[in-house]
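Comment thread on ticket #2218

A.B. wrote:
> Attaching the input chain for the structure job we discussed in standup.
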Amino acid sequence: MKTLSNLIENNRVWAKKIKDENPDFFSNLSQQQSPEYLWIGCSDSRVPANQIVNLPPGEVFVHRNIANVVVHTDLNCLSVIQFAVEVLNVKHIIVCGHYGCGGIHAALEKKQHGLIDNWLRHIKDVARFHADELSTLTSEEKHIRLSELNVIEQVFNVCNTTTVQNNWKRNNELSVHGWIYGIEDGILKDLNTCVSSIDLAFFMHSMMS
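C.D. wrote:
> Ran it. Output below, let me know if you need it in another format.
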């Protein structure tokens, strides 16, 4: 039986290092979590939220799925958003995609992939919304641009959730951001889609349509 003892040992080394640097870190962390950020990102193992923004455990509440998609029928994602906004009182929701995304690549392929095709349908819809723009691009450019467009679309999907809409109606502070990460250089890019009110959400979405 494989016990993954190497990972257990890695954990002990990591925990000891943390405690050596800050003896009270875990005892303080166990009392509560009060992150300022909700990160909605891709499940890709090369895109770890905390490490990318150089923040320790407890600072970022995280939800991840294939290609960082936010769908109005996904109760998992919607529940995360509600908990983050209404219980944790996060001030920022970050939708972060990445270049070289396997989900984007699969959505652009003209072949079946099995069960995941049902999920990729959402990305294919984004490609359909922007078909005219994408049709002028090379294959590589299309992958890059669809990765960006998908993030932007998901930002507005977040903005259209009842949780976020109601939070803004109560005049609470909350901003939704669209970022994309470069695996090849480790650099985040702001896609300039920061939305902080209902009116701004409608305006920006109309400009992108």
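A.B. wrote:
> Thanks. Noting for the ticket: The mean pLDDT is 93.
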